[in-house]
Here is the input.
Amino acid sequence: MSIETGMSRSPQMLALTSELAAPFNPRDVKFKPQMVKNNRCLAMAYIDARLIQDRLDEVLGVENWEDVYKILPDGSVMCRLRCKLGDRWITKTDVGSPSEQPDMGDRLKAAFSDALKRAAVKFGIGRYLYRLSAQWVEYDPVKKQIVQPPQLPSFAVPKAKSQPSAKPAPSGFVATEPKKEAARADVSKINEPAPANTNAPAAKTEAPKTEAPKTEALKPEPQKADPSKTANLPSNGQELHRRLREYDAKLASQKLCSVGALLAYVTQAGVKAGFTANMNEWTGPAIQLAVDAVREFDQASRQGKPEPRTAA
Here is the structure.
């Protein structure tokens, strides 16, 4: 089996590549006219270079990617993008073209951005935009802009996440809600006689019977909620991934595991259970499985055992 095949089957590698290739928020996707005919144009989707940088920072970390540029004689720019995926540095290279702007500096800047985008596509970032079908939309020739951007198909929109039920998890991974004080009975009003009824009919001649005022039994004070049962699980896969990275870094800083070990272990457990390797798409059952896996990993790490492994 080749190295590439082995890497493609690694749960950690699958998780990283899936997160890199995940669709962006529709509000971050822009459209520009590729071809104009009167008041209609062919809309082409694109994203800013800063979104590429944000995605690399979020998924890999600022220390795990770097870009180097070279200006070519024809004015185009070559980008050499290096990313650390797992334990290996992978390099992708592509060339960006200058724009048609009058200013030389603006044309060169556009070439740098285009080169980064093209190199990032080879890592899967924004590649789904190339699968969008061309759409003719309304165009304002005076303002030289698209009137109404087209709607993105379902595969180009991040999947909605459902709200899972809450269960306890290791401290620092799942946040807990503050305890609510149970309502206490007002003891001062116990054994207090009921107020006289001023609208009652006149008493009969025979002596009325006197009854002792009724007292209500003091109800026991409700037990305070167990804080471990009020824990909030991550609301979606993206929040799960963020908390996992933070907790992974915390365990690594305490010398309880190596960096990335927790993330790889949870991803592998999810894949074994039949869930996708893209943690951003995990919902209720998958998130609960992740919490259980974190608990198991946390317990084994703190007992000084070797990092637990899940069978592939």
